[in-house]
Amino acid sequence: MTPPAYVVQQEGIRTPLELSIERRPDPEADGLSRADAAWPRRLRRIVRAGLTHWGRPDLTETAELLLTELATNALRHGQGDVIGVRVYLDGARCVIEVTDGSPLRPELRQAGPTDEGGRGLFLVEAMADAWGTSPDGTRTWCSISLCKGPDDPMHPAPVPALRTYPQFSIPGDPSAPSRARAITRSALSIIGWQGDLDAATAVVSHLVENAVAHGVMPDFPGESVTVRLCLNADGQLVIDIDDPHPKFPDFEAALAGELGRGLREVRRSAEVSWFTPPDLGGKTVRAIMTPGEADL
Questions:
Q1: 3-state secondary structure of 87
Q2: In the chain, N or C: fewer CB atoms in 10 Å?
Q3: Strand, coil or helix: what is 191?
Q4: With 70 as the cut, is the pLDDT of residue 115 above it?
Q5: Which of residues 236 and 280 earns the better pLDDT score?
Q6: 186: number of CA atoms within 13 Å, CB side?
Q7: Nearest Cα to 51, choosing from 157, 149, 177?
């Protein structure tokens, strides 16, 4: 058996980080074998060490999640005996490549609300600046802008966060609530939310639906809604939804259900507020949920 190996060379930060992983599928297992299931966690440690060595620790959280999704998909669906992983800096981007030997191209699919998996590519599409496959379909790649991280706008109401999920943006169209639900369920598991998963997912969906209905301007196609999720020091879930409209003149009426059920439903299980961060050009609607207090 050829042992898996990885290399972080010392010649310069442009030298790729390269790995080879031996697949050990179990035909009797439902999902990944125990040996294969151990690799995503190892890969997160490896890419974290590599990016820190390259002086870009600000990219680690996003890169860890993207690599986890691509590698898990390759381990689950690849056809070769070896999975190849390559991470490198190329100009103004960090590129993550995973080769699995399968000519079948990965496809976005809509996972059901109770599905445990099937959301990997939705997460990749939401968090990466770009993603795609090689012409023969055996290699899947994604990239992160090197401008992300330290240059993100400062939030006017900072939350002391124990764990944060990388923010993701969704096109401001009717598909936004379902896309948000698909990503949120996996995101909440990743950050370790101890409360009601279904209720928190419903809160995000309601807030995104509200943002699309009242915050996205119909005369400006291509606008998006941004979602941020984190756990604060008290174990509460903080949900921030950004939209392009800087005003919320009927906020109290919306909370009372006079403008629809969305925010009224959210208010049953979360504290709701809104504010206009400087330099955002729009507004943020915030919901804070406490484990054990969900009523949705």
A1: strand
A2: N
A3: helix
A4: no
A5: 236
A6: 23
A7: 149
